[in-house]
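#structure-requests
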Amino acid sequence: MGDTLTQHGGPASNGPPVVAPTARRAPAGQRHERIPALDGLRGIAVVGVVLYHGGHLRGGFLGVDLFFVLSGYLITTVLLRSVGPDGSIGLKRFWSRRARRLLPALIVLLVVVLPVYAHWFATPTDLDPVRYDGLGSLFYVTNWAQILHGQSYFTVTLADSPIRHLWSLAVEEQFYLVWPLVVVAAVRRGGARTVFVVASVLGLASAGITIGLGLTRAVSFNSIYLGTHTRAAGLLAGAALAAWFAVHGAPRSEAAQRRLQGAAMVAVVVLGAMWMTLRVTQQSLYVGGLAISAIAGTLLVATAATSTSGPLIRVLSLRPLRLLGTISYGIYLWSWPITQLVSERHTPLRGWTLLIVQVILTVDIAAASWLVLERPVLRGAIRPPWSARVLTFGAVAAAVAVIAATAGAVAAPSTSVSTAGYAMSKVDGAPRLLVVGDSLPGRIVQEGILPQRDVLGVSTVDRTVPGCILLRSVGIVRGREGNVRDDVHPCDDGWGHLIERFHPDVVLMMFGEFPNDEVEIDGRFNLPCTAAYQRAERAKLGEAFDQLTAGGARLVISTAPGSSVSWVLAGMPPGMNDRVACMNQLYREVAAQHHGVDVVDLASYVCPPGERCKEQVDGINLRQDTIHFRGAAAELVARWLIAKVFGTKQVAPPPAATTAPKPPFCGQLALLQKNLGQFSATTFGAPGSPERDALIGAMRPLPPGFESSAPPELRADITSLVDGWDALLDRVAALPAKPTDAQYVAALAAVGAPVAHLGSWSATNCG
């Protein structure tokens, strides 16, 4: 993305137009000039990326692939031009130039953005992934850090790391480190022809691996998208093009140029269609889409690098595109952070107006970075050995900035409970309880039952598996973003062994995280409550019931609670609570057909029929993340569950600890939540009815002191909510009597994010 090549102005040769780094001074009479069309191509690529970041171009992320092809072509050309008479390449000089080209602007980005983000925008849990991204960027391994830590590229939220986009720079830098060594070995063995063969074979292998993984879904699409081995195809396609030109020369004849430009126009149409329509979660992207994008990009690079006329060259040589291409590295670095920090959440701007402001800021900062920092460094403003010392000092300063800015990071609540083996808590003479399911019951056991084992009087074995799905053994699982979930495991591994070893008196089974994942059944993906899903689930439940009661234990299956706040979860398929209710009914039906199986109705305890799901019980916040019961909430639910499971009187809670007084703003938030609770009722009268008018009238005034008593960290959310409140009420007034989930989402779209952040603040501060 930060590569620069120039075109030789001297006599023609048998090879492609002579190219060399701009920092190398040409001999007298052989001055170099930039290739305008290549700059224009960079400009188009970065425009696609910026529009994608702003949410205005569905497939604009493919601009990164065009950058990959450009980088592979330009870097390989530089390397081949640098081959000495003895076949050596000045690798030290090459890597030094790469460092001087890329590190200074990256260091400034980290030193400026991360402290600003940490101080004014982030919560402690927001900082956790930023630490990985920041340190990973300095070592150019951000893509692998995101894969290993489960950071999804497909799920975009307002709290995303402002440097998550550096994964692609990491891929390029890994290429810059390894590929020159390959070129040296290939040149010594057979010259540029061998380089072409090696680049072609490795490029085809990378594309083949990508297609194979996409077809088999052996790993998640997220891993395929971020992986170096899968994204190397574009870089290697550009490298093969450079080697081909070095061997055979650029097309010179008029007929060859016409054919090349004709192919390039086809590539423009293909890429245009892909950029307009292709989503990053579509399987077609991984079973040929990325390969097609690389081929089309290679045709465009070949044309831009060798042609001097024609309609495509005239467009690519337009001054605005060339200027954007010149500062494209800075635009790439700053576009995503500005998109995150200057957003709907933090400004009153919306839509294209917001995008224009973001673009102006991005281009201005990128231009300043090029004029003040990047170009002077490339022109030798800091001479060796001081350049190495300054870069080293800068990298250390950036590392310190990352560590200092994320010092208050708190890991997001983990769903990891007992993925290997099991956890046991024994109470002498107490009944034995085995708990199976996913992280919903796992958290109740770990944070509710085990800490109260003496009070509850129960020996417990926890064999929950976070994120497990009972039907995982039937087929693969696809998440709500459309990606294959490689983190999902079957729930029932080892159940028979535990029954034989532990001899439980009671088995408690519970699931909570299934309703938005699809399972492949008979070659098709099915959400819960489809006919195929229900048939498979009914059969699997029957097998599980027989297995868990084989030793004489009584089995209790708990219904899963729904949620009143599903609309705050980005990308949630509509109808989640309907699917939860449907599956709970299936549990009841299958349990009724099996001797020794009972049902405990946790769903009705948390979400009473016809009422909004409870957010608090006895002053305790139930589910801060909308799914799991944690801490005091886990202890509360554990006491209720144990009483129901063993048919005993509910255990009284321990004496309440003295708590700090709640902030005054908690009262205003409680009134706001009450208003929104009325809005979320199952039915509230037809549009224009007295019931609807009464509801709107009750919601019309925001709570007294809503703005004046708000703490500073919530001011941006309060402003956004106040600005959108009247529009929200207008949408509420127009809703049907029984809105669908999708209609709820649409009505709340403008205020959903600030309300979600207010709810999070309330859960933390108003306990």
